[in-house]
Design brief:
By secondary structure, this protein is α/β, with parallel strands linked by helices. It has a single domain (3-277), classed as Phenylalanine Hydroxylase, CATH 1.10.800.10. The protein is 39% helix and 12% strand. It contains twelve helices and nine strands. It has helices at 50-64, 73-78, 91-102, 115-123, 147-154, 161-180, 183-195, 210-213, 218-224, 235-240, 258-265, 270-277; strands spanning 4-5, 19-21, 24-26, 105-109, 126-130, 198-201, 204-207, 229-232, 251-255. The chain has a four-stranded mixed β-sheet. Strands 1-2-3 form a three-stranded antiparallel β-sheet, with no helix packed on it. It has a two-stranded parallel ribbon with strand order 4-5. Strand 8 (229-232), helix 10 and strand 9 form a beta-alpha-beta unit. It binds 7,8-dihydrobiopterin and fe (iii) ion. Fe (iii) ion binds at residues 1, 145, 149, 153-154, 195, 210-211. The site of 7,8-dihydrobiopterin has 13 residues, from helix 4, strand 5 and helix 7.
Length: 294
């Protein structure tokens, strides 16, 4: 899930800038005061209530029931690695399985963390997973990423070697971008691939983005609805395109393969950022004559 930190915003508990979603400024959810310098924290698995495990199970059951024909094969193959869906997994146990597969591990965080800390964790193959679960009345939608979004949406594809490599390359790119003030461009890349990306397959388009895969309504919408536009992956086109934080996307970008993502992150982004600085931004629903339309 992507967010916007307002560096100028007043610092709240422990100096964490409030996270801004869409138009409203919202204080961060989660216990940042007890987080470490790198923003990681303890999961405190023993504090989850039976009601929370039940809510998590219901979220998993609902999403798992609609994956066929909508989620990419790599996701469907790996989602079972999350373990017993009847309760929130212990991050340490899941890390043991994940580390053997692709060298990634899961670390608990209190919620959204500043981009620099986020990039630094990805660059070390440590994926930040929010420790808290949404409230029952947020069953259909929660603005902030919670443990269900991060675990069910993001973790399965970290078992795929190609995607696991892309996520680390993204983190390393982010650490360089920090100096080039290009975080907004990278946030858009993250948004239109890791969060809301589609992939073209012989059987048709499928979802691989975590924001889609963990959403009750957007999974079918992103693959089947005639309303949004679906455009071929184009790195600089994506980096120019703004996105919507609290509604279904107006545009989805389609890759041919995870190898394509790796290839896209291979070059040094500095010259791309220089070109982008002179290119006008694009609205989320804009259509260019050069777009490859699916
Ligand atoms: N923090 N915990 C967490 N999870 C995210 O997905 C996340 C974040 N901070 C920043 C962020 N994503 C985005 O701004 C990325 O595009 C960098
Ligand atoms: Fe996410």
């Amino acid at each position: 899930m992507s967010s916007r930190f307002d560096p100028g915003a007043k610092a709240s508990n422990r100096g964490v800038a409030p996270v801004i979603y869409g138009t409203g400024e919202r204080p961060p959810r989660g216990d940042y005061a007890s987080a470490r310098e790198d923003f990681t924290c303890e999961q405190h698995w023993e504090r989850y209530t039976a009601q929370e495990h039940t809510l998590y199970r219901r979220l998993c059951e609902r999403q798992t029931a609609q994956l066929a024909g909508l989620a990419c094969g790599e996701f469907i193959e790996a989602v079972g690695q999350l373990g017993d869906p009847r309760q929130i997994p212990r991050f340490d146990d899941l890390s043991d399985t994940l580390r053997r597969a692709t060298g990634w591990q899961i670390v608990a965080v209190p919620g959204l963390i500043p981009e620099e800390a986020f990039f630094a964790l990805l660059a070390k193959r440590r994926f930040p997973v929010t420790s808290w679960l949404r409230n029952p009345d947020e069953f259909d939608y929660v603005v902030e990423p919670d443990v269900f979004h991060d675990l069910f949406g993001h973790v399965p594809l970290l078992f795929d070697p190609m995607f696991a490599d892309y996520m680390q390359a993204y983190g390393e790119g982010g650490l360089k971008a920090r100096d080039l003030q290009a975080c907004e461009y990278l946030a858009r890349l993250y948004w239109y691939t890791v969060e809301f990306g589609l992939i073209d397959t012989p059987a048709g388009l499928r979802a691989y983005g975590a924001g889609i895969l963990s959403s009750a309504g957007e999974l079918r919408y992103s693959v089947m609805s005639p309303v949004p536009q679906r455009l071929g992956f184009d790195l600089t086109r994506i980096m120019r395109t703004s996105y919507k934080i609290d509604s279904y996307q107006a545009s989805y970008f389609v890759i041919d393969s995870f190898a394509q993502l790796i290839a896209a992150t291979a070059p040094d982004f500095a010259p791309i950022y220089e070109r982008l600085a002179r290119a006008p931004g694009l609205a989320a629903d804009e259509r260019l004559a050069t777009d490859r339309v699916f």
